[in-house]
Amino acid sequence: xxxxxxxLVFLILQFLDEEKFKETVHKLEQESGFFFxxxxxxxxxxxxxxxxxxxxxxxxxxxxxxRYSMKIFFEIRKQKYLEALDKHDRPKAVxxxxxxxxxxxxxNEELFKEITQLLTLENFRENExxxxxxxxxxxxxxxxxxLKKLIEANPLFRDKLQFxxxxxSRLRTLINQSLNWQHQLCKNPRPNPDIKTLFVDHSCGxxxxxxxxxxxxxxxxxxxxxxxxxxxxxxxxxxxPTASPVPTPLAGWMSSPSSVPHPAVSAGAIALGGxxxxxxxxxxxxxxxxxxxxxxxxxxxxxxTRPMGISDEVSxxxxxxxxxxxxxxxxxxxxxxxxxxxPKTVARTLTQGSSPMSMDFHPIKQTLLLVGTNVGxxxxxxxxxxxxxxxxxxxxxxxxxxxMPLQAALVKEPxxxxxxxxxxPDGSLFGVAYSRHIxxxxxxxxxxxxxxxxxxxxxxxxxxxxxxxxxxxxxxVITCGDDKTIKVWDAATGVKRHTFEGHEAPVxxxxxxxxxxxxxxxxxxxxxxxxxxxxxxxGSRVDYDAPGRWCTTMAYSADGTRLFSCGTSxxxxxxxxxWNESEGAVKRTYxxxxxxxxxxxxxxxxxNRYLAAGDDFSIKFWDMDNVQLxxxxxxxxxLQASPRIRFNKEGSLLAVSGNENVIKVMxxxxxxxxxxxxxxxSSESSKPAISSLAAAAAAAAATSAGHTDRSTNVVSxxxxxxxxxxxxxxxxxxxxxxxxxxxxxxxxEVSEPSQCRSLRLPENLRVAKISRLIFTNSGNxxxxxxxxxxxxxxxxxxxxxxxxxxxxxxxPPQQWQPASGILMTNDAAENNPEEAVPxxxxxxxxxxxxxxxxxxxxxxxxxxxxxxxxxxxPPPAATFLAFHPQDNNIIAIGMDxxxxxxxxxxxxxxxxxxxxxxxxxxxxxxxNVLNVLVSSGAxxxxxxxxxxxxxxxxxxxLPLPQGRPNTAPSDTRVQFHQxxxxxLVVHETQLAIYETTKLDCMKQWxxxxxxxxxxxxxxxxxxxxxxxxxxxxxxxVFSSANLRLRCRVNPSAYLPAxxxxxxxxxxxxxxxxxEPNMFAVGLSDGxxxxxxPVESEGKWGVAPPSENGSASGASAAAPSVGASAxxxxxx
Length: 1131
Fold this sequence. Notes:
Blueprint: H1 3-18, H2 22-32, H3 38-46, H4 50-57, H5 67-86, H6 90-101, H7 109-117, H8 136-153, H9 170-184, H10 277-280, E1 345-351, E2 356-361, E3 368-373, E4 378-382, E5 387-392, H11 404-412, E6 418-423, E7 429-434, E8 438-444, E9 450-457, E10 463-469, E11 476-481, E12 485-490, E13 496-501, E14 507-515, E15 518-525, E16 529-534, E17 542-545, E18 551-556, E19 563-568, E20 574-580, E21 585-590, E22 603-606, E23 610-615, E24 618-623, E25 631-633, E26 645-647, E27 653-657, E28 662-667, H12 669-678, H13 692-704, H14 741-744, E29 748-750, E30 756-760, E31 770-775, E32 781-786, E33 791-795, E34 814-815, E35 839-842, E36 848-852, E37 857-861, E38 867-871, E39 878-884, E40 887-895, E41 899-904, E42 909-915, E43 921-927, E44 932-937, E45 941-946, E46 952-957, E47 972-976, E48 982-987, E49 990-995, E50 1000-1006, E51 1014-1019, E52 1025-1030, E53 1035-1039, E54 1044-1049, E55 1066-1071, E56 1079-1083, E57 1088-1093
């Protein structure tokens, strides 16, 4: 059922309730399953109407849907059973036991036996657990408290417990508005229209015919508020125009800014200088959609929250609400023609080098394309000549002016992505919003002349969007970010002009606009809220919910008369809608999206006529006036699952992101001619004019910089692997062995792609970074958890080339999703996403994965991707999960408050809470031989817990290298050796092997202070090797017996040259469960690579010779990790 049909059901429910059709109301609630009336449910429980209680519940859930539903039905049937026993009606009790309670015996046979034994007691209160059972009334009240908690926690009741906030008689209002529109379209409209029925369209009779009463007072429709409720039809008719000005399309969205000290109490509308009433009445048969008259529903208080309503102009299938009228052109100069003017021919294919995240064509030089990528690169292309004019990698221009949180974030996680690039209206400036705090503005002077203009430390966390606007005729930059704010900056000086606060979630996008002389900003947040702001620091003027309630962007048509939004929900459902601004309601919803979009859908508008969106590996087009899909184009294949798209100003070119870091430029016939014109023309021949403001700003910047490039004084974050970097060398350097053994044994270096088998897994869904990674226990799939809380699953298929169907680097797998298209998405943290600690654990049979990303813990079915349950809402948040090796129903959950909770899934109960750490838990590992749990934390402490009584047996603080402050938190991870007696300890400063019973360190491999930190490490499946990844993108293979290096995989072996200096590096590493020489890494750019040695070798290097008399590997100096090119052996 469509969203509009669903909303119609709510309107009918309201109508039935107002008309006192009580039984029908509850019947419709149950049959539709849209609204669970808790008050009605409580009344039926109090009255003991058990059959009606279960019948009503059946419209929303069944007994076996989930554990919450099972417990709800069990509690109801148990109460019914106890009441029969209390009345000594044993035949009835036996009937309930057999018919209603027997179903639960398959889930808990012992409990069913205990319930059955109550029949043998004279008074069931003799049972100890029921000794406090009172009378029937009190027992029902106590049960209701429990039932309400279960219903509120049950995901099947989500969004069904709150009835939408509607104006009284909303359905009547819509019908009355429809009748008025019909009357306005009459050939001979009469002052007192003759409206006798709703079954056919209204039409006025001959002038001398009988006249019926006005629909305002028609008894059929009931009383409707008159004030501002209907469009005026004539100077002397019953629908008299009011003296107030007619509001234009923002009327319902924003309250008047004039002389009202508190916008929250203003019910008026902004008059944006729209056409006067008299002008609108000159053509009564052509209602202009650019001007919406006030309705009874538009007189809302500016900051009142209400759900999306149904627009007056949306067809509901009963010919009540007309959609279009003769002459309704919306600025389309010619009538709609076949989509020959759509850019659908692939005219250019550009290779950017890293994945495009945002693109924008120059507003004047329309073949000039600006690109920002997932590793912070900026590219400027002359599409006509296929020439890349400029390529810049990310660097902070002046690190000394950056806030301490930013400096700390860049050191901890130096990889930065571009979230948005955009040109200023005249093309003299462009802005770049990054995933870390920063906005950078460049001035553009034509050709390759791009100069640094402003760098702003704009937001705490990511800067999610950037745009330009001109309030008071002064160019400003608007930004929004993870810190839930929108900020306005002077584009010439970088001075902050406004800060808008009011969102309760990270702000995802901004859309500045103006109507006549009124400037305003729409903003959307990750909780789906849409707000609007004037440049007056008076707070948000509206508060609405966007379809999908997650990632939403908004855009106007080119002529500024029509407003659209595109959004994707967490479940992958995507929406493009047009808004009726006067109502703040959805005017039309466009059809044609894939059932579940593989990523957040991006969209754009062009020519006041078309909408386009990237979805399902294609570009989909709609005519703005038709909700049906116009056409879809695949760009000759190779597009991303949800490609990013951008039109040039004339709509003749369309840039689309493809796989393998490619940008495809589509063109129509005009675009092809344009590209042909520029093919042999130098990019210098046409430089865009620079506005006087921007020129002055650029001159001022040049003067203040002493006419020198500021880049010479910049600390480069991007170049951490390069020889010319300004930061401290981050490569681990360890002295070569001093004895003669180095002449016999040689470290295996893998520096070329041909020296190993490496495969980057295909990416249908682009993510920022991989936070967790694991092979399935069967060995035929790999599961990743991305930083945006989405799980990615790749499966290898059994075929002629892969008879076993196991994972291999020789054949690419498929990124798998069930037929429903649903995504496994965790409940996201409400705080800064950068602060969330993702974690997951896989059940032994690969049937379930338990996962968290700073929010509630979710239990997913690995076959259907459905969420089976969610529990433990923060605070505290889960930071590590581990299944008990002998009972999948027992889970150890490490928390960010330093505790460990032992949780029983079956009974939904925390059995024990372990306290021993001082900072968040970062590692947990069970030994089923020693019956212990080993834990590690950000406090660098190791603890051993007995799993019988959960007492702490011993603990030890990990010795950190000298010169490193003990207060610096860092993840410490633990993993048991195959023998279940020794375990591996992984810290950014060291690898170590510990004996469990005494916590003695048996072997250690330290990282020197000036070297690249370890990001992750793991045993191979046979525990003979240790795979470790480093922040400089090196991967090292150690022999676990002595923790000595035997093979080093250099970044050049698996990363393309374009990423060699981009700080892309592995964050996590996982070993195959059956193949000792296979491992995979999850990268900071969202990629996953799987590795195997070349078939001729069959293993990673040769084991280094063991040292005689050495008790610890710590004293064994290993070959250099991350040596410079000159130190590496020649190949």
